[in-house]
Amino acid sequence: MGEPIVLDGKTLSKELESSLAVRAQRIIERTGRIPVLATILVGDDPASATYVKMKGNACQRVGIESRKVELPKETTTEELLAKIDELNTDPAVEGILLQHPVPSQIDERACFDRIALEKDVDGVTSLGFGRMAMGEFAFGSATPAGIMRLIDHYRIDPKGKHAVVVGRSPILGKPLAMMLLNRHATVTICHSRTVDLPSIAKTADIIVGAVGIPRFIKADWIKDGAIIIDAGYHPAEKCGDVDLEAAAAKSSAYTPVPGGVGPMTIATLIAQTVEAAERRLGL
Questions:
Q1: I need a surface site. Which of 3, 7, 69, 166 has the fewest CB within 10 A?
Q2: Is 60 known to be catalytic?
Q3: Would residue 14 show up in a list of annotated catalytic residues for this protein?
Q4: CB 225 within 8 A of CB 162
Q5: Measuring CA to CA, which residue among 142, 123, 140, 153 is closest to residue 255?
Q6: Residue 1 — very low, low, confident or very high, per pLDDT cuts 50/70/90?
Q7: Average pLDDT in the 138-164 region?
Q8: Secondary structure element (H or E) that encloses residue 1, with its range
């Protein structure tokens, strides 16, 4: 087995942003208006604020507008729903992002599901998930959709492969499993209560770390030649959900951490915002 392929999301995201800048400029020339991504941040969580800032910077690079909507941490579900309703009816807003997590008193699922389907550019609504799972059009959850863009770029075809997704969150593990299933992979979803997880992981042609625990997936869980998709990032430990230092050499391809899945998430969010504008305008 030769050297593994590094699935370089950082480089691909820059290429994608360059093409998005051209598309955004075309929208502006046709309409005289700059597409707007509204980002809602509730409370003062520093990590969330950092993510919102990164998304704003990406908007700026592509030439679209990021409208920051900041609400106090005491905000109620009803107040947040009212703000989402306001953005849903604002013709200048192409996409709406509600930064996760929200404070505990808010019904997050109700708020996600209030976002209009055509503005759900982060792919968080139940309706969008259902449509995507059934093979109908909807904007995919940004991280799984970014992973699919990345593997497509490197001509990795999931068809016929056994994909093991370790993690079942509604915005990562579950939608990615459906996307892989729609592309003819055989998919196993594992989680913290899975019995004998290492044995199942060893059968994977594609293994996805989406569990949120540093270096949870060990090198001896991975069979030679597997494709490793590490969707985790833990800033304190500077690692993902896979013990990549030990495991990468066993793989045929892997996503580095950082520089793999992370940049693709933000680039995909911006891409789906530009696409939302194009769809609305019939471009």
A1: 3
A2: no
A3: no
A4: no
A5: 153
A6: low
A7: 98
A8: none
Provide the edge-to-edge strand list for the sheet that holds 65-71. 65-71, 36-42, 93-98
d(CA 177, CA 147): 11
What pTM value is reported for the model? Answer: 0.95
- Of 152, 188, 154, 157, nearest in space to 173 by CA: 188
- Comparing CA positions, the residue from 216, 207, 168 lying closest to residue 191 is 168
3-state helix, strand, coil in the chain (%, to 5): 45, 15, 40
- Return residue ranges of the chain for CATH 3.40.50.720: 142-260
Does the annotation mark 122 as catalytic? Answer: yes
Q: What is the pLDDT of residues 74-98, one digit of tens each?
A: 999 999 999 999 999 999 999 999 9
DSSP characters over 70-116: EE-TT--HHHHHHHHHHHHT-TTEEEEEEPSPPPTTS-HHHHHHHS-
May I ask the CATH architecture of the domain 142-260?
A: 3-Layer(aba) Sandwich (3.40)
What number of residues does the chain have?
Answer: 283
Topology of domain 32-117 in CATH is: Rossmann fold (3.40.50)
Mean pLDDT to the nearest integer, 187-197: 95
The structure tokens 């309409």 sit at 31
Please identify which residue in the block is written with the tokens 């055989």: 186
Q: Which of 8, 83, 99, 161 is catalytic?
A: 99
Radius of gyration of the chain (CA): 19
Which candidate in 8, 119, 120, 122 is catalytic? 122
Q: Which residues pair with 41 in a beta bridge?
A: 70
